[in-house]
Amino acid sequence: MSIRRLPEKLVNRIAAGEVVERPAAALKELVENAIDAGATRISVRIAEGGILRLEVEDDGCGMTAADIALALERHATSKLPDDAIEDVTTLGFRGEALPSIASVARLTLESRVAGGDGWRRIVDNGAVVAEGPAALGKGTRVLVEDLFARVPARRKFLRSGRSEYAACLDVVRRLAMARPDVGFTVEHDGRRVLDVQGGQDRLARVAALTQRELAANSIGVDLDRGEVHLGGVISLPTYNRGIADHQYLFVNGRPVKDRLLVGALRGAYADLLARDRHPVVALFLDVPTSEVDVNVHPAKTEVRFRDPQLIRGMIVGGLRRALDEHGFRSIQRPAEVAAVAWQQEPVAPVPTLFAAHLPYPHAPATHLFGADGDTATLALLRDRVVDFSAPREAAPDTLPMGRAEAATAPVPHAAEHPLGIARGQIARTYIVAEAEDGLVIVDQHAAHERLVLEQLRRGMSGQRVPSQGLLLPEVVELDEPACDRVEAATAELAALGVEVERFGPAAVMVRATPAMLGAVDCQKLVTDIADDLAGYDAALGLNEKLELVAATMACHGSVRAGRTLNVAEMNALLRQMEITPHSGQCNHGRPTWVKLAMDDVEKLFGRK
């Protein structure tokens, strides 16, 4: 078969397959064009997920009639004044979007520059069908209708209108997050679904586009390393989600989905979250254009760094530093949510039968058995009425009993001891403490698990964890690959207080365990260590695997739920939490303590 030159119409359709994968891809290109035009307000209107109609209107610089005609030609752009494509600072630069979209849809392009006349050009699947004057303000309006209507092979692969709409909304969210100085509105099928004003600060914009509670449960990131700057907002480990749909990454203001950045994010939260939980983050990385290549993906959603290890180390280190500085904080839920969670006992009307025994004899009352009641039954019950006003004795084993240990220490100042002073224990699991500004409830198992982990981490950093030798070494049988993994990490495990040695091809001998763990099940401990060393085998280095090992060991050695603590033990746990990094969350990302403000307590009892 001989080689032939493809016709321009077919070339445009092939290009559209790379650039316009779905309605969201077309919308992304149009919104990026509006941002590059200097718009301060961008309005988006969508119908049927963008399949039927997409409209983007902005108040940017606009175009003349000649520029409109040129913009609809392939590889025509105003964003590359010279040939230095490596120095591009705009979101778009290839000049492919408009002609590609126009080749597979009906596109109407209207624009006007300041002080000029508006102009319109309509292109239907690659053919110009009309043009002429248009009435509009300064800026540009682009209307895309019936996307892929004449390309049934592409249209049948589109998802439902609801799925396409979700993808379109995600695109606008990411671009709006990158530019808090620009206002955005989105309407879907005539209903406004997003409206953010321009001129917001970064935290306010991120919270408005994700979840409002993020503002109270987030940490700011601000780090410089040479010419590279990392900024943004990350959630507390206790404020997390089951899927990674609220992780936004930007490089030089461009939304990207990069495996390196996602891996660095996972590394930063490695021992703070369970493996199936994900933080809410919006990270903004500013890199010199000479250190990053943005021209490696047709949709410009991936980038390539000249020094990827520097970027990864900066993200992991910057996030860890920010988390370390705020490690004591735990999730702060809205007060109204906390108040609703408390159940108020309904006040039932008092039956007539007991009216005589009430402190207020004339209080309104109702009959126990209806309006008139059964006279015989009432007489029978009246004989059995107990006079609650008279003192009486009861057998000690018939009354509810509680611990009578006094906890009379005064409440300390919040600045010195924010967790307050222990007042009691509930269900042998939760410590109740009184703080200067509210009521604190602590999960004793989760809290002690974090304290043990931090002690083990100090052992990994060079401060060897004290171990206690076993009177009789215990042999643990494992399969041979698991024994190999444990044997290879013998020196590192010794720093954590676990002394093991190989004992034949399919067993290891445990000679010592960390003293802080007390009596442990060596079989289960070593098995879990072997499993952690096998996890993420290709993706993590030994130190990162040992972080997982330390978390597993901490779970084995922590104070279990169901153990009764005395007041001194409870206060010792609170004081240790106040000086331990990351004590606001356990090793799985759950909060170790919550606080109910005194105002909320008073609201529960109707005092406010």
| Shape assignment | elongated
Radius of gyration: 33 Å
Q: How would you name the CATH homologous superfamily of the largest domain?
A: MutL, C-terminal domain, dimerisation subdomain
Low-confidence stretches: 334-339, 350-373, 380-386
Please tally the helical runs, counting DSSP H or I stretches of 4 or more residues.
18
User: What number is the mean pLDDT?
Assistant: 80
In total, how many beta strands? 24
CATH architecture type of the largest domain: 2-Layer Sandwich
What percent of the residues sit in helical stretches (DSSP H or I)? 25-40%
CATH topology of the largest domain: formyl-coa transferase, domain 3
Total domain count: 3
The CATH class of the largest domain is Alpha Beta
Strand order of the largest sheet: 5-4-3-6-2-1-7-8
Provide the β-strand percentage band.
Answer: 15-25%
Quote the distance from N terminus to C terminus. Answer: 86 Å
> Helix/strand-derived class?
alpha+beta
Oligomeric description of these chains: single chain
Largest sheet: 8 strands, mixed
GO cellular component, one term: mismatch repair complex
Protein name: DNA mismatch repair protein MutL
Pfam families: DNA_mis_repair (PF01119), HATPase_c_3 (PF13589), MutL_C (PF08676)
GO molecular function: ATP binding; ATP hydrolysis activity; ATP-dependent DNA damage sensor activity; mismatched DNA binding
